[in-house]
């Protein structure tokens, strides 16, 4: 039934592979780094984490150079259209490598990890594995590639979540992450198989073309879309696919929680944008809800449910990690708002919001690490009276939380402003979405401000020393993130220009 | 009668839908972590049948390739899953999902 390829065909295949490799350098470099970190661990068996963490840090920073080189190579499909290099992918490559860098820095500062009895072994290698997976998620243009890269991210994340295997919470978090992850990736792959059946293609651009030209059965396509949305929705942690996130975020080591809540979420959004903008047909023109684009309605439901649920349930959380988990569900809702608009302004706002979320959420988790190192607790109650004793941590936490609420003069304010103005620019149809977003932001003010309230205005019941010293490294990183949060809150043009640069690729898809 | 005598695409799709239903049923109703993971395997295999059937009737090789990758990844996932489940058993002395619930609101 299938004929063997001739010699000439094999030759041309090899030629394509050879020419594609030179456009694949960042990923190759990161994979080599992954192996090197494992080797360093196996050969030197370091007692301390420094050889591993510094190697990873240097490697991740070096990979930025290879990504920078790709600016000249945009608009290219490599490996037979499996993989694309465009501005959008490059934006996310920077994003994921930078979040990997910050995650490594936070891990270096975390006593919880460094005091682990059996050493840190493959921890940093797994972080790099996740970075590779996410980088590939952002540039995949084929269902197979999407599936493989998503699984690479998930499998590394399961192990990282359960990394403190003596801790019941960590193990339990890993189990929940695994079960929900396995089910949703199963649903997603079933959805992929239906899409493949409808079109006979696995390349998402070809799928979009085939669906547009040949027509499709709306019910079947909708079923497949919902199943795929379940897989991606689980990655971004939007309601109703959020059940894993509070327990996983509470159970995982804090650096892993921070990494999952920022990078893995952003990877899900990158995939969501690319897949649904390109592959699934949506009604063009002014009418946003034309037949065949009901998935926009689905996204609206997801977004509104996430904003309301995340912000309301966060109100009675007492554990800071759990509180930030619910807040991250709410933020998934805000980011979805920008995707729903589906125009240039909306997508730009989405990307900008993710950049701002990178700064402020990593910052908040870093302060949580510093405080957990000193007090051994993540309870809001135990934050009492710490503001005066740890001035930098207190001030930084306040800035990050103000930014998470979305108040000026922080980068979070600009992000929310861009998203809401993109919604309102569409006229009155999205007005209600913007209203829900603004009202839930007001709710979030209460629970975010509980933390500074405890830090500054309440006194601890137990006597604490007058000053509590944190290490140099976490202090420097915290200060850096705080200054960036404030700086980009005022001079936001570089970030918004970068986000604008990234969405050029969708020029013909957006309306 | 033709539906009974010749096997076509529909037969494959029906089998795969049934398998998918069983898998989802196991995931939703079972309490044992291992059985839930078996349900996931059923879902993945349902997708595999779909992919192979579509590949056969579309005439392309992508589906065959896809299903090979799904099999490999299912094995990788099972390896990690069992490691985590063993760790759960060591910590909680049970693999029942409802009883592994130490974190509450």
Helical fraction of chain A equals: over 70%
Indicate the percent of residues in helices of chain B. over 70%
Mean pLDDT of chain B: 90
User: How much of the residues of chain B is beta strand, in percent?
Assistant: under 5%
C-alpha geometry of chain A: globular
Task: Please name the two chains that share the biggest interface, counting residues whose Cβ lies under 8 Å from a Cβ on the partner chain.
Answer: A-B, 42 and 46 residues
What is the strand tally of chain A? 2
* Tally of individual helices of chain B: 4
Q: Indicate how many domains the architecture of chain B comprises.
A: 1
Main sheet attributes: strand count, strand direction, barrel closure of chain A = 2 strands, antiparallel
Total helices of chain A: the number is 21
Nearest-angstrom radius of gyration of chain A? 23 Å
Based on Cα principal axes, name the global outline of chain B. Answer: elongated
Distance between the termini of chain B: 58 Å
State the secondary-structure class of chain A.
Answer: mainly alpha
Q: What is the CATH fold-level name of chain B? A: Helix Hairpins
- Let me know the number of strands of chain B: 0
Q: Care to describe what's here?
A:
The complex is a heterodimer of chains A (511) and B (105). Chain A has 511 residues and is an all-alpha fold. Helix content of chain A is 74%, strand content 1%. Chain A contains 21 helices and two strands. Chain A has helices spanning 7-21, 25-44, 50-69, 87-109, 111-114, 123-139, 143-161, 168-199, 204-214, 218-236, 244-251, 254-278, 294-313, 320-341, 344-375, 386-389, 391-405, 411-424, 431-457, 472-490, 493-502, and strands at residues 76-78, 83-85. In chain A, a hairpin with a 4-residue loop joins strand 1 and strand 2. In chain A, helix 4 runs antiparallel to helix 6, helix 10 (218-236) packs antiparallel against helix 12 and helix 13 packs parallel to helix 19. The radius of gyration of chain A is 23 Å and the shape is globular. Residues 283-291 of chain A have low confidence and may be disordered. Chain B is mostly helical and 105 residues long. Chain B has a single domain, classed as Helix Hairpins (Orthogonal Bundle). Helix content of chain B is 78%, strand content 0%. Chain B has four helices and no strands. The longest helix of chain B is centred in the last third of the chain and has 31 residues, at 62-92. The A-B interface holds A 2, 143-144, 147-148, 151, 155, 158-159, 162, 165, 168-169, 171-175, 178-179, 182-183, 186-187, 189-190, 192-194, 196-197, 200-202, 246-247, 250-251, 313, 316-317, 322 and B 13, 16, 20, 23, 27, 33, 36-37, 39-40, 43-44, 46-48, 50-51, 53-54, 58-63, 65-66, 69-70, 73, 76-77, 80-81, 84-85, 87-88, 91-92, 97, 100-103, 105.
